[in-house]
Amino acid sequence: MTGDPNAFHIALALVLNLDAALFDIVGLSLRVSLTAVTLAALIGLPMGAALVLWAFPGRGGVIVLLNALMGLPPVVAGLGVYLLLSRAGPLGQFGLLFTPSAMVVAQMLLILPIIAALTRQQVEELHGEYRDQLQSLGVSRLRMMPTLLWDARFGLITVLLAGFGRASAEVGAVMIVGGNIEGVTRVMTTAIVLETSKGNLPLALGLGLVLLGLVTLINAGAYLVGEFARRRLG
Amino acid sequence: MHARVRPFAPLPALCLLSLALPPLAAADDSITLASTTSTENSGLFGELLPAFKAATGIQVNVVAVGTGQAFELARRGDADSLLVHDTAGEEAFVAEGYGTERADVMTNDFVIIGPGTDPARIRDAGTVADALSRIAEAEAPFASRGDDSGTHRAEQRLWESAGVMPGGEWYRELGSGMGPTLNTAAAMDAYTLADRATWVAFENPQNLELLFEGDEALFNQYGSILISAERHPHLQHDLAEQWHAWLISEAGQQAIADYTVNGQQLFFPNAAE
Amino acid sequence: MNQPCPLPTTARDIAPLALVSVSVEHRGQRLLSDLTLRIEGCQRTVVMGPNGAGKSLLMRLAHGLLAPSSGSVAWLGATPRQAMVFQRPVLLRRSALDNLTYALAVKGTPRHRRRGLALAALDHFGLANLAKRPARVLSGGEQQRLALARAWLLEPEVLFLDEPTSALDPAAIKAVEEAVIDFHRRGTRIVMTSHDLHQARRLADDVVLLNAGRLIEHTAAKTFFQAPRTAEARAFLKGERVW
């Protein structure tokens, strides 16, 4: 029974039939994860660069903590955000639990350490190369931040992709804070969990293939842009 | 002359676009219903919610979790209404003051699922207590939900009434929902206790078959609970009351009776009784 | 030795740079020891010495990129505008033109004047047709000329150059040397390191000879090349290794 309707055929049929429910789910997945990556980048990129440019007591501790948080289990992040956003929690009055916003917050917390820590590595390398020249030009540290981030842009694209990959692939956090509500907070990964629990393994696998295809497309696009730019700009 | 290359120019615009989209929030006229995976997995909500929305315009957002987690959500004020199947737990919830009203809505029943070869020979058992005793005696693998859900609590009561303290190599607590438990039982040829609705809608049975049913002890009552406005004044109590009233109204009860899978009725309305 | 600046318009005093008993240590190793040196006027000082003598270190100290472990590095008067050209030019990952407008922005030049000034500087250094080319795909010689153009825009009173020609072919070396003369003509004090005796003969007004982190000799170029005072200098000029 499981072997008969091939998962590839199901995935193909889902895409070719422009299944409306599927498109809603895919659209929400993309929106939630892209928003989470954008917000995490707005915080994580300057944060990573600042960790290179400013020495302060406890910097080593912050770096170790960020590296450790890269391995934070999504369920734990989800539970933390749940307790924050729950009505009984400190941010309960905003009523964000079981909304896509809650999922954005959870994913953002998951990928912020990744983006900040990897940005620090990329910027540190570049800073080693640029430091003397920028200092010679009289560039202040505050101004070095955008300069270094912009000149590290090829590497940082990979960093953002790593963040997006983790955000779009995780299920533990969005399941808890989103609730997998049909039409409201159901995303690709929670839909896959649901179909698996219904025993509909071919459909679950088909959805998995659609997700994989989507992530592959985005990565391929970013790779091509990066390669093209790298070749042109040296 | 080399054209200026600006491969990154669209990036900021894209980022802004994703932020400028309409706010990611649920519709105003909606309630959050904490319910069990068995009702969600069986597909019943697919029948009930559109009918309710057509009648009242209210959207019901179902968060399907184990009964234990559903109670916890409601205690913390994160759900507007509850639809679960653990009568003892529901009455305690009301007694503690978290709920104000509880009503019977419908029943379905539990069944014992197991490998078609039936190594513990429970097919001809007289009662569910007898069936469970045979499984324990044969030390045949048994997959327990182990997640403090309504089904898990019912299973524990059934072992107790059979006079067996399940334990040992053969008794496997999975800590999973109904569907994953059935998947696991199928993979390791284990017996398990399932609600009929999930079982009938389940699509990956492999060697599993329905081996025992019909004992009155397997009766499974679903109840709807209204949550205390005193404890959680922020909730959508008006809308939740409409939902609660509709479930036990003639229209709601009829919708429950009308839901079938493969021509088989899964839930039996019993609010009027 | 204190030669006045050649052009009347810029013939004002640039503060002398005084290094007094400067030492630099790194991981227990003495890289510069007890160096006392004064660089002043508008001349072209060429710092020479074998590899590892501490030439680059001296440049970084003088330019303020590095603090000494002991001793003092000070401008005797107002700190002059400075620029530095490195052995391997460090260019930003943008177009040649954008590299220049960036430097102008840092300098505080109003936005509407940056582009015109940058284009003029590119033209001055023969890079006008490469304005929109990414800086990092230029040839080594073009990159070094771009670095010089960037320094040009900063209108430095003191220009430091650290082995600016060591990785270049003869034509590019000639272009860099011409640029150095250009800067000097504009009234800029030049401090550069080189290990090329012929280059030093062509460019130097005075010579600083370092060896193993110590100052051997600081003399006018004519004296240094015709009648060096120390035995080390004589050996260095003959290409011998006596130390």
From TrEMBL, chain A:
UniProt cross-references to SUPFAM superfamilies, sorted A to Z: MetI-like
Cellular component GO terms, alphabetical: plasma membrane
GO BP term, example: transmembrane transport
Keywords, alphabetical: Membrane, Transmembrane, Transmembrane helix
Database matches in PROSITE patterns: ABC_TM1
Residue ranges occupied by any ABC transmembrane type-1 domain in the UniProt entry: 26-222
Transmembrane stretches, start-end: 6-27, 34-56, 62-85, 97-118, 203-225
Compartment(s): Cell membrane
Mode of membrane association: Multi-pass membrane protein
Classification via InterPro entries: ABC_perm_TupB-like (IPR049783), MetI-like (IPR000515), MetI-like_sf (IPR035906)
Chief site of localization: membrane
Protein name per its UniProtKB record: ABC transporter permease
Species this protein is from: Halomonas urumqiensis
Automatic annotation (TrEMBL), chain B:
Name this protein carries in UniProt: Sulfate transporter
InterPro entries, alphabetized: ABC-Tungstate_binding, PBP_domain
Sequence ranges assigned to domain PBP in this UniProt record: 32-250
Gene3D superfamilies, A to Z: Periplasmic binding protein-like II (3.40.190.10)
Keywords: Signal
Source taxon at top rank: Bacteria
Keyword Nuclease: no
Signal peptide: 1-27
UniProtKB/TrEMBL annotation, chain C:
GO MF annotation terms: ATP binding; ATP hydrolysis activity
InterPro entries: AAA+_ATPase, ABC_transporter-like_ATP-bd, ABC_transporter-like_CS, MetN_ABC_transporter-like, P-loop_NTPase
Protein's cellular compartments: Cell inner membrane
Entry superkingdom: Bacteria
GO cellular component, one term: plasma membrane
Stretches assigned to the ABC transporter domain: 17-237
Stored Gene3D superfamilies: P-loop containing nucleotide triphosphate hydrolases
Sorted UniProt keywords: ATP-binding, Cell membrane, Membrane, Nucleotide-binding, Transport
Main location: membrane
Keyword Transport: yes
PROSITE patterns: ABC_TRANSPORTER_1, ABC_TRANSPORTER_2
Matching Pfam families: ABC_tran (PF00005)
Signal sequence extent: none
Membrane topology of this protein: Peripheral membrane protein
Family according to the record: Belongs to the ABC transporter superfamily.
PANTHER family (alphabetical): AMINO ACID IMPORT ATP-BINDING PROTEIN, GLUTAMATE_ASPARTATE IMPORT ATP-BINDING PROTEIN GLTL
Official protein name in the record: ABC transporter ATP-binding protein
Species this chain originates from: Halomonas urumqiensis
Organism taxonomic ancestry: Bacteria, Pseudomonadati, Pseudomonadota, Gammaproteobacteria, Oceanospirillales
